[in-house]
Amino acid sequence: MDVKADLLVVVAGTNWKGGELTRLDQMLKGHLFPEIRQQGFGGAAGDLGLFQTHGALPARHVLVLGVGPGTGAAIWYRLADTIVGRARELKATSAALSLSSEHASPATLERLVEGLYLASYSFTQLKGQKNGLLSGLQQTAFTGVDTGPAMRHALTRGHSVAAATCYARDLINLPAAVVTPTYLAQEAARLARAQRLTAHILDDRAIRRAGMGALLGVAQGSAQRPQFIELVYQPAGKPRKRVALAGKGITFDSGGLSIKSADAMQAQKRDMAGGAAVLGVMSVIRDLALPIEVRAYVPATENMPGSGAIKPGDVVRAFNGKSIEVLNTDAEGRLVLADALSYAAAKEPDVLIDLATLTAAVRIALGSRYAAIMGTDAELVQALIRAGRECGENLWELPLVPEYRADIDSQVADLKNIGEGGAGTIIGGLFLREFVGNVPWAHIDFSSTVMADKPIPCHPRGATGFGVRTLLGYLRAL
């Protein structure tokens, strides 16, 4: 393995004493096997052996990683994360990755490329001192891998999906002073040019003319003007299906007059993560050449307690004509989505999916490793759960309990924006269901997963970009 790289990575299964690894041991005069065996390496998933070559090979270090039977995407994501982490520790900027024919499939290669890109991510845009910030892997080569069209396409897909996720991470990590509603609208226009999409962006006057009173109600306490974003991707031929995506775009959430505590407010730049996920999908949609029509909607605004702010007890009217009594101005995400969903449903897509940091209750129910999903179409919900499982984004279905619907009945309007205090995530879903008509619909509440408080495989601390890969996986499977 005369490969010029700082780090040589060899992937091995339970039958690891053979093939390339045996030849490598011979090149190292029989020193490799005893060393990694002493470190406890046995080829099981998660096993690791590290060997310093002392100039016997072009690579300074050999890293042997066990994958066991090598099944399941999670194994390859963890392996990619380990490679990036060890490379950083060893100050290696280049790596050569050797896969046996047993493991070198397009699916494996795609997951590895995706994982390497995601694990290498760091948010440094606002750092003053940049020395050392780009340390880590700059280049990775694969050895012993077929270079045919299937493998090349896998490399391209893995890179595109990871790039879209990291784009969403950047949007979420940037401060709210940068990512304003206007900034999101400008980004949407840029994506439209880059991906050859059709963009329709409504300012506050156009939003008013369209009858989106719920979005305007949330926006009226902020000096930042709201924006309603629509991006449309049309495939080259007749689309197999028409899919609508909606993402909550609250660029900062103070809670409005129902103001949050200081601690709860600190992370509220993340409240546009649904919109970021949708824009992430659209940032690579043309590159992936999907044979379906995709329409993306982001209702973007701040939720602030300015002098014109909406007050508890006020009533707004959504795009579909339903009136909403606003009893808690901090339940604003469902208000802006009421307009986005009813506007999207009016275009009669085949399916409608929304993503939102809708409730704090979802984290109480599911912790930080699962997001909630609910909807009106079982097949759609299960397809999204499968897509999430395949990329390590876990979704857990919650029921839209019919008996809870009465909790959002209002005495003065068609419905109110909060329930009686229990089942908060389900109540949020029941509210949104009022605005999708008869379109098959799924709602993902991912307040629990959009930020990582501590590093997890392929997700450094901070924004995760959760949802982008699930949506792209779902779209690709159609």
Brief summary:
The chain is an alpha/beta fold.
Main sheet overview? 9 strands, mixed
Percent strand equals: 15-25%
CATH first level of the largest domain = Alpha Beta
The class by helix and strand makeup works out as alpha/beta
In terms of quaternary structure, the protein is single chain
CATH level-two architecture of the largest domain: 3-Layer(aba) Sandwich
Average pLDDT confidence is: 94
Give the fraction of residues assigned to helices. Answer: 25-40%
First-residue to last-residue Cα separation: 41 Å
Shape: elongated
Low-confidence stretches: none
Stated plainly, the CATH topology of the largest domain is called Aminopeptidase
Task: Count structural domains.
Answer: 2
Number of strands: 19
Enumerate how many helices there are, as a single number: 15
Radius of gyration: 24 Å
If you had to describe this structure to a student in words, what would you say it looks like?
With 478 residues, the chain is of the alpha/beta class. The protein contains 15 helices and 19 strands. The protein has helices at 19-27, 32-38, 73-89, 106-119, 149-173, 181-195, 204-210, 213-219, 262-265, 273-282, 333-346, 361-366, 378-390, 424-433, 468-477; strands at 7-12, 48-52, 61-66, 94-98, 139-143, 198-202, 227-233, 242-247, 249-253, 293-303, 314-317, 323-326, 351-356, 370-375, 394-397, 415-416, 441-445, 451-452, 462-463. The strands form 4 sheets. Strands 6, 7, 8, 9, 10, 13, 14, 15 and 17 form a 9-stranded mixed beta sheet that branches. The protein has a 5-stranded mixed beta sheet with strand order 2-3-1-4-5, with helices on both faces. Strands 11-12-16 form a 3-stranded mixed beta sheet. The two termini are 41 Å apart.
